[in-house]
Design a protein that fits this description.
Blueprint: H1 2-12, H2 24-33, H3 47-51, H4 55-70
Length: 77
């Protein structure tokens, strides 16, 4: 039942239709500009992993960033 409550809570959040969206090119430029740290983050990934993402990975990140802004929610770790 907890998962259902969490979903409804998310649906009740207002959507920011005027929120800026990111392009895959902007995401790729940000990934390229990031320094290649070897330290592993709490998600088990380092910047080196992100720098080796393919086109589908960059598209996924772009959509994730845009959805986060549009719904004013940052995903949990």
């Amino acid at each position: 039942m907890l998962n259902g409550a969490r979903i409804w809570k998310r649906l009740d959040r207002p959507s920011r239709l005027d929120a800026p969206t990111f392009t895959s090119e902007q995401t790729w430029d940000a990934v390229k500009a990031a320094k290649a740290f070897k330290a592993i983050g709490p998600d088990g990934m380092s910047n080196i992993h992100v720098k080796h993402l393919g086109l589908n990975g960059v598209r996924f990140l772009t959509e994730l960033f845009s959805l986060s802004l549009r719904h004013t929610k940052i995903p949990d770790i």
